[in-house]
Amino acid sequence: MMRTDAKTLLLAAGILFVAGCGDMTKDKEAEGQQPTAAEEQAEQVEPQIEDVPATLPAEVDIWQSPQELVLSDATVYLGSELWLNSMPVIGDDGSQPANKLHASIRLLTRDMKPLPKGVEILQVMVAQEEQQWLGQENLDVRSEGEMSLEVSLRGGPEWLPGSKADIAVTVLYQGQEQVLIQRGVLISQVF
């Protein structure tokens, strides 16, 4: 028991000595004197305290995005249609296809201004309560003259006709990604 206490005491004395040498070195440097080799070595032995990692901001909620964006001098908004295709069609295997959701989402401009050149649609998210339908790859994007872009999606979830969904579109313009939303789009049914 006595031996452990002696080791602890010796270790504590060593730490105090090293800490004191570091302070002396800093005092000498402040006075313009050069520290001795022993003082420099003692300073290098000081334990390093690692920085605590920075806390990252909370994930951005895309549903807090605006319903209009200004790109160049044109104000753009979404004009969307959602529907279930319930046409009586027989599939290749003899079964009737499910009522899958279809979407036509248009990026439109106000005041008859042309859509700026170089606007790209990167992804589309359609959400209803906790369910989401995300389209990112192989988007079918078409230009409708100078005033709008349309992206079409097919084969979405089987949501109820008459219910509503929210839409978020990520656009890229001049190297900057921005999100534009449309809320409460009615899901219709086509027979």
TrEMBL record:
Listed name of the protein: DUF3251 domain-containing protein
Lineage of origin: Bacteria, Pseudomonadati, Pseudomonadota, Gammaproteobacteria, Vibrionales
Species this chain originates from: Photobacterium pectinilyticum
